[in-house]
Design brief:
heterodimer, A: 103 residues, mainly alpha, Helix Hairpins, B: 169 residues, Four Helix Bundle (Hemerythrin (Met), subunit A), 3 domains, 7 helices
Chain lengths: 103, 169
């Protein structure tokens, strides 16, 4: 007996999650919240990969999800390091006040 | 029937957590909402029989990355930022972008709906569990990417420390 929850459900949920994450990246001013939104986007992609992995009954999708998690962790570590250095120099975490390259 | 109930419960947790993450004012509250969202995603992994990813999600994301975020939030003083305006002045352009992207997603999902429903998920093969199958494929077919990932993590560790440490002049 097949489950009433289809792959489609997971894809719709993943698309919603990705859009919410994009809202956070585009609209928020706080760098920390922007980085959290990036994590949301990466998780949406992972959900998509796992859904297709389940759909096709192959584990390759889950392997890709593992690699995405590795990259996300590396990104979070370096990004938060940059954030601390930035806060030490500029005393702000609002992205539109960080305008060194603007003229 | 429990499948449906669990799916919708976890999906609601995920989406509500995500919305709260994006809308709340205090960064600590955002982080806690994000933890709820990540836990919902972990539950969805379990529903899809990806047990290894379920454990990784809880240990690595909720236990590792989110603790890192909370540390940084407490290290960087965000009290001032919480009182400021939370959204950009150019929010209209962002909303226009989002509506466009959302329309494209909706169109593609609507178009692809039939093709996904026709091919029902294959029956689960009994025998080897998720972790065994995953490790077989990971260490046989994806050994080189696995080693490259360890190099990437090393570079990230060194880079993170270099970025965050105080300059000694």
């Amino acid at each position: 007996m097949s489950s009433p929850i289809t792959t489609e459900h997971y894809l719709v949920l993943s698309a919603m999650l990705l859009l919410i994450g994009t809202v956070g990246v585009l609209l928020r001013r706080n760098v920390v919240v922007i980085m959290m939104s990036i994590e949301l986007i990466l998780n949406a992609v992972n959900l998509n990969l796992v859904a297709f992995s389940h759909h096709l009954q192959q584990v390759n999708g889950q392997i890709f999800a593992i690699f995405i998690i590795v990259v996300a962790v590396a990104e979070a570590a370096v990004g938060l390091g940059i954030l601390i250095a930035l806060f030490r120099n500029k005393e702000t975490v609002l992205v539109d006040e960080i305008d060194l390259l603007k003229w | 029937m429990t499948d449906i109930a669990f799916f919708y419960a976890f999906a609601a947790l995920t989406v509500l957590g995500a919305i709260l993450t994006v809308t709340l004012r205090n960064a600590i509250h955002c982080a806690i909402a994000l933890i709820a969202s990540l836990a919902g995603i972990a539950g969805l992994y379990l529903l899809q029989k990806a047990e290894f990813l379920f454990v990784v999600q809880i240990m690595l994301y909720i236990g590792g990355v989110m603790v890192l975020f909370l540390f940084v939030i407490m290290l960087v003083n965000l009290d001032g930022a919480a009182k400021e305006r939370q959204y950009h002045r150019h929010w209209l352009a962002a909303v226009a972008c989002l509506i466009g992207t959302g329309a494209i997603f909706a169109a593609f999902l609507h178009r692809g709906a039939g093709s996904l429903k026709l091919e029902s998920p294959l029956p689960v093969v009994p025998g080897a569990g998720n972790v065994e199958t995953l490790s077989m494929v990971l260490f046989r077919e994806y050994l080189v990417p696995f080693e490259v990932a360890s190099l990437l993590l090393l570079v990230a560790v060194v880079g993170g420390v270099m970025m965050a440490k105080k300059r000694i002049d």
